Every structure is written in structure tokens, then in C-alpha cells.
Predict the 3D structure of the following.
Amino acid sequence: MVHGWGASIELLAPLSLRLSRLGYRCYQIDLPGFGGSAEPNEPFTIFDYAAFCLAYLDHHGIDKIHYFGHSLGGRIGLILGSDHSVRICSLVLSNSAGIKIEGSTQTRLRLSAYKSLRRGLEKIGVKSAAEALRNSYNQRFGSDDYRKASPVLRQTLINVVNQDLLDHAKRVTVPTILIWGDEDQETPLWMGRKLEAAIPDAALILHDGAGHYAYLEFPDRTASIMDALYRSA
């Protein structure tokens, strides 16, 4: 069970508790940089996070699993279900990220102008002005996740969100359930529908009225759905 960006195993606990009552053994991890895990020494890519999860399985002598991932954890699940499907029995992805969103023309032009100006300031040796420009731009246009992150995790976030995993979704070879909230503003419902269309054996289940943490808003229902999948997979 793998959490989303900025979260930890604490937000997986309500779901894992319900699954454990159904007889399942649940393994939860804090990804590097979150919860009780130290930050990576260098910025990670999403493939580094997937490799970390595989190393965790190897460390515990686990050959094959049912995988649950939320948001960032969903990105990892798409890689595991496509490139490492021999280790995966099934996927349950809640409000999964993984589809790259192209910014508007205005946003791209603004970013291009900012980068050009910053590089120009750095080139002429005005590093303090370049750093002030960077901070001002990030405070005005950066996401909350980006502003709160350390330098290593900021670059990690950039690496992660710029990796489009739609082609991986098309190569997922295990049964997949997509759990979504119809009021999700972070990974909107259209993303869930696009993943459902891309993954060969996938079903999208909506939690009406739920947002980005649909599984957490409806933990009993989510656990029941997972139990039904596990019994049939």
C-alpha cells in the first residue's frame, strides 16, 4: 500500500485496518522523503520510486502482491503493473496521477520567459537577482506541494509530474480497479476515465461526493471492493 505526494502510511491506516479485519496482511511504506523515511540524496524519478518499492518487496522476501496506490502511489502502480507485472496480482489505484497535463499557451510562454530571464541573470553573474526571481516566481505560480518541498523534493516533484505514464497504462497486464471521487479537483475524473480506457482490464468505480482522497472518505466500501477483486483475481 503506497501513499500519495506529501502523505504517509498514517493516511493508509484506516483502509489497512479494514482489510486486516478481512484477513489480509497489509504492508505499508513511507516513500523516501515522506513520513518516517529520509529524503533521497538526489532527486528521484517515478522509476526510482518504483525501484524502491521492488527493493522493499525483495527485502521482505515477498514474491507477489496485490497493490494499492493513491495518487503518486498510483503512478508507481502503473509502472509495476506494466514493467513488473510478474510481481503483481492486481492493482487498485485511487485517484491515480500519471497523465501529464499540458499547460496553457499563456503558462508555457510565462515559464519560458522566466527561464530565459533567470538564465540571463545567472550568465552575467547576478546570482542574487536570479535567486530572488526564482523565489518570487515560485511563490506566485508554484503549487503548494512545490513551495513546501525541499530543493531535492522540488526537483523530484518536477521529475514526477513531467513523466507521462499513459503508455505504461496501456501495457498494464493485471486486473485493475480504479477508485475515484467525482469531485476530485487534483486528479479530475476525466483522468480516471482516460486510464480506464487505456488499461486493458480495468473498471472505474466512483464514490459520489468524494474528492481526491476517495478511498479515505469511503474506507469500508473501498475495502469491500478490494476484497471482491482479491477473491476473484
About this structure: Residues 111 and 137 are 9 Å apart (CA to CA). Residues 9-100+164-232 form a domain with the Rossmann fold fold (CATH 3.40.50.1820).
